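User: Hello, can you help with two protein structures?

Assistant: Certainly.
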Amino acid sequence: MDIVARKNEENLKITRELELRENSEDTNDRSVIQKFYHGKNLFITGATGFMGKILIDKLLRACTGIENIYILVRPKKGKDIHTRIEEIFDDPVFNKLRDEVPKFRHKIVAIPGDCAIAGLGLKLTDRQTLISNVNIVFHAAATVRFDEKLKLAVGINVHGTRDMLNLCQHMKQLKVR
């Protein structure tokens, strides 16, 4: 029995050493950026626009260790946020991502809201989720139409940014905004 116990103990030590080596090799193979984003939760506004789509694609292909990406989505043209999300990720921009990281969608969390509405149009529960979990914020929402009504343009581009900064001040885990 004593020999069997020692052999099991030796095997356990060897297994632990191998696991440590594998984990350190995985860590050493990652870039500084990949290490930074590993295990982080992001919040992105403007994710349904061109720049937002490119950002999501690049982040999820390059930094597979990202925990979740919360994206602010508003209903538009009679479509609810879930329909819009389905259409967004059917975009050819995400073809390479679908091939390289087929299960990327489970990392995307749609949050209903609108930068033109006070407080980003967030429900209290969604606001609390963001405050508790988000580490990194990309505020890319804006209206770039030159013929936009001034009241709407100021609401989105100015007040939306102010509301985002106010939300960030409450985020407990925030590393970058």
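That covers the first. Now for the second protein you mentioned:
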Amino acid sequence: MTTPRLRHRRGRLVAAVGGLAVTALTVALAVPAAAAGSTLQAAAAESGRYFGTAIAANRLSDSTYSTIANREFNMITAENEMKMDATEPNQNQFSYGNGDRIVSWARSNGKQVRGHALAWHSQQPGWMQNMSGTALRNAMLNHVTQVATHYRGQIHSWDVVNEAFADGSSGGRRDSNLQRTGN
């Protein structure tokens, strides 16, 4: 029998995690109420999982935001700060300041970091948007190499290509200049 408080907690959990609710709720039901984690990250850790969120560097100074992120999550993803337009705004001129702030905050709080994203059609810097063929392929290889090297040893895993598939139900690859460089 569950208490009203536990039922309420489960309701918030379902609302907070959407598609992950079934897995997380299954864990909550399989573990006696007294043993269930007191935070989302603790509940996830009980079954060998992590529970993450995207963080914006400019919000880290908001104590409510950072307190909740620190308490509830054990995996942090940069919201936009590691995307191409943020890390290489001008060709061969890299900027890591805000990405580094997120990594530093996460690591100082014992969090793992997921890098997001090395390539994405949507947030390409202006200088890259009209490139194609070999020039684009070489620019992308340089970008991925430089950014991944900068964060070597600090990132748990990378979203290498974000949203590679077209919207809708076709299941096809997205038509973008990145795809047209070759498979």
